[in-house]
Amino acid sequence: MGNDKKPEWYDPDDPRQFQSVVRKGISPPENGGDSRSVKRSRFVKKSRLDIDVEELAGQIQDGSRTSLARGITLVESNAEHHFQKAQQLLEKLLPKTGNAIRIGITGVPGAGKSTFIEAFGTYLCNLGHKVAVLAVDPTSSLTGGSILGDKTRMETLARNPQAFIRPSPSGGKLGGVHRKTRETMLLCESAGFDVILVETVGVGQSEVIVRDMVDFFMLLVLTGAGDELQGMKKGIMELADAVIINKADGDNVAKADKTRREYGRILHFLQPATKGWETKALTCSSLYGTGISDIWRLISEFEHSTQQSGVFAERRRLQTKEWIHSMIMDQLQFSFFHHPDVKTLLPKAENEVISGSRPVAAAVDELFKAYLGL
Ligand SMILES: Nc1nc2c(ncn2[C@@H]2O[C@H](COP(=O)(O)OP(=O)(O)OP(=O)(O)O)[C@@H](O)[C@H]2O)c(=O)[nH]1
Ligand SMILES: [Mg+2]
Question: How far is the CA of 98 from the centre of ligand 1 (A)?
Fold first, then answer.
């Protein structure tokens, strides 16, 4: 890495997290240089490290976007000392959270998620809502997230002062993407955002993760989906509170309506995602804005009816409980595999088991004894 410096949030215990470097800049001259620039660089470094949690919490609640972004950066950091600060910050802000409607959006690549969020988010801002858009990207730990693509596709919304768009965090220890996105959601709520949109590409696990953190979950699909319908995993449909057939415009309107009826028939036979709520199929055009208001009406209806029945609050209680459990699992896994004795013994244990000289359970038992210091 030559002369490159690692950023201050770098965690030396876990090189896996390390995705960027700070290039060495031009150093001020040792003697006789401009003393002002030296002072300034010292000042910048200090202010970045000394985070005043009390002050930051106040600024976030006052609606400062810069402070919100700083808070989120703290939550997303993989450094242990930032983790502690982030938890203090969350503790301060917790009383201000929970007042938003949390909406998950999924769909295959090209279904129109970004275009939909642009239209739907802008519509909500015009109604006076404050909208935060977050993303869970299962590929982000490899690619660093699809930041640029989405920001350019949500150009109008990104410029709207009532909206806040945050690309997907990358993984790491201490709970990974799941924790980071949930905590970011809480920070946004404490900053007064009352609609949270969480987007994810519909590939496997990420829908389940998002379903577990939102109140309402919608699946965006395309028309002419006869084949798609058959191929689509029943599991995904059973997570959804609404199926939205997008691109219902131009020549596609009639086809979209036919697809809507087909989905309606199938949904009728599936287990609903939310107790007491029949999953609906609707059409919309994200490009022309048609059907967008109906979707918001449906979500409001959903919120009202599940609040009345108690299902809304019950789901949030279960989600929080589930969150605790998943974080425990994450931490256990991390601490086990990073335990020095486990690291030493594991390769030998694997070889012995593979060569057939030791039973699996005996090898695992030995590893756990080493981990627990028994
Ligand atoms: N005609 C029409 N085209 C649309 C509509 N919504 C999206 N599109 C087009 O469909 C293409 C894909 O839309 P995106 O919003 O990028 O889709 P996405 O689901 O975000 O895709 P990924 O980010 O790759 O997962 C773009 O060319 C959009 O212009 C719509 O309502 N009508
Ligand atoms: Mg997109």
Answer: 31
CB within 8 Å of 330: residues ≥ 6 apart: 173, 174, 175, 176, 178, 179
Number of C-beta neighbours around residue 2 at 10 A: 6
Domain architecture of the chain: domains with CATH:
29-96 (1.20.5.170), 97-309 (3.40.50.300), 323-372 (no CATH)
Say what percent of the chain tops pLDDT 90. 58
* pLDDT for 203: 65
Ligand 1 in contact with 286 (CB < 6 A)? yes
Atom 8 of ligand 1, residue of closest alpha carbon: 112
Q: Do 336 and 343 touch, CB atoms closer than 8 A?
A: no
User: Ligand 1 in contact with 138 (CB < 6 A)?
Assistant: no
- CA of residue 108 to ligand 2 center, whole Å: 9
Q: Which two tokens stand for residue 180?
A: 């980071």
pLDDT at residue 88 greater than cutoff 70: yes
Lowest mean pLDDT among 8-17, 95-104, 310-319, 349-358: 8-17
The ligand with the least distance to the CA atom of 165 is 2
User: How far is the CA of 97 from the CAs of 91, 123, 234, 241, in angstroms?
Assistant: 10, 23, 34, 23
